[in-house]
Amino acid sequence: MTTIILAIVLGLAFGATLDRIGASNPTYIGKMLNLTNVNLAKTILLAIGVGSVLMFGGQMLGLVDVGHMSVKTAYVGVFVGGLMLGAGWAVAGYCPGTGVVAAASGRKDALFFIAGGLLGAAAYMATYPSWKASGLLDKVLGGKVTLGTVPGSKYDGLLALPGDVLGIVLGLGFIALAFALPERLVPQRAAEQPAE
Amino acid sequence: MPLNWKTGGLLLGLVFFLAVMLVKPIGVSTQFVILDGIIADAVNPDLVTKTDDGYTSTNAYLAKSNGKYAKSVSNPLNYSFVFVIAMAVGGFLSVMARGGLSQAERSVPALWRANFGDSPVKRYAAAFLGGFIVLYGARLAGGCTSGHMMSGMMQTSMSGYIFALGAFGAAVPVSLILFKKEA
After folding, report:
1. For every residue of A6-23, which 3-state class applies, written as one string?
2. Which residues 34-73 in chain A show a CB within 8 A of chain B?
3. Is the domain of B6 the same as that of B58?
4. What is the ipTM of this complex?
5. What is the SS3 string spanning A67-89?
6. Are residues B119 and B179 in the same domain?
7. Which of A16, A102, A118, A159 could form a disulfide with A110 if both were Cys (CB 3.0 to 4.6 A apart)?
8. Domain range spanning residue B119?
9. Is some CB atom of chain B closer than 8 A to the CB atom of A176?
């Protein structure tokens, strides 16, 4: 029961936050991906950094259970699937989570995205045995690994460096990158009206 | 207008941190499979079956990892599924609190309109196709933007970096080609 209450509270917070940062607005996603306004990328970088610093800092202070980490396997299909997701993300302007939030916020095109998504997931379920047989799902680089070796975690580290310290350093790096990134990465076209 | 990136990033980072501190890292795309499974199991009850030590399925994907997905299909009231439903409610409440979306924006978003006109059918077809590719890709990759990229990179997971490289590596060129006009 407690976990269900947590699911409700955390889910509500996540959905509301995605709406407030503009992640469920395809225009805002498109402006990030065509590099005309990367404020959302700055938001994402800052969030990864803040999350990382808090999580690894919390682990070092003994406030966060290392056992709550859940690291996914590395395999070639992660990259191939990433390419596919990226292409669809650019076309639709939605990824799985933001598509759900967008549909709930009244965007009718997001309902079509979800319908397509359910069909795509079903198509994967049907074709999974071929992918499995292809070897593209076999682990690479050690499979479920973190970059450093996190003390007390069940995952191996790619490097022998202390994973929690490395996590904080990388987290600070993400935060610095968020600040350093300019808002616009491509030049303004002369013929166009100034944005906003 | 969205929140400025500093406030927004801090909030989003806090949500990801709280999730991993209290339960586990956030992920969404698996639930598309679970919902497919629930629908398919309602049509064909033989799809997911109970065994002595858990659940299994005639579908190899639902049966993998000792029937982890098959179990969620049989018990939809689990953390991850409820999380995604609550997420939809959270998004709805947030939009309503800021006055809702305009009628035009609800069918064709501004940037799409500037580049491809205001035909809803064209937009719906693109969103459907995009959804298909996104979820097929997410399942092949084993996660999506939230699970692989955000939660993964936050935990310094190798797979998260591989995923982000692929996702942005395709998304940026495709977007540059598609959306030449600015909204």
Report:
1. HHHHHHHHHHHHHHHCCC
2. 34-36, 39-40, 42-52, 54-55, 58, 63-65, 68-73
3. yes
4. 0.96
5. HHCCCCCCEHHHHHHHHHHHHHH
6. yes
7. A102
8. 104-183
9. no
Write down the H helix ranges in chain B. 5-22, 30-43, 60-74, 79-97, 103-107, 110-116, 120-141, 153-154, 158-178
Tell me the one-letter amino acid at A27: T
Identify the CA nearest to A125 among candidates B21, B60, B26, B82: B60
CB B55 within 8 A of CB B67: yes
Dihedral (Cα; B91, B96, B99, B105), 10-degree rounding: 50
Which whole-number Å values give the CA distances from B68 to A79, B53, B57, in the listed order?
24, 12, 10
Give residue A80's identity as a one-letter amino acid code: V
**What pLDDT digit, counting tens, does each position of A127-182 carry?**
999 999 999 999 999 999 999 999 999 999 999 999 999 999 999 999 999 999 99
Domain ranges of chain A: 2-180
Q: Calculate the alpha carbon distances from A38 to A97, A174, A196 in Å.
A: 19, 15, 14
Instruction: State the pTM of this model.
Output: 0.95
The answer to whether residues B110 and B90 belong to one domain is: no
> How many domains does chain B divide into?
2
How far is Cα A32 from Cα B182, in angstroms, rounded to an integer? Answer: 12
Answer yes or no: are the C-beta atoms of B151 and B26 closer than 8 Å.
yes
Structure tokens at A85: 């997701």
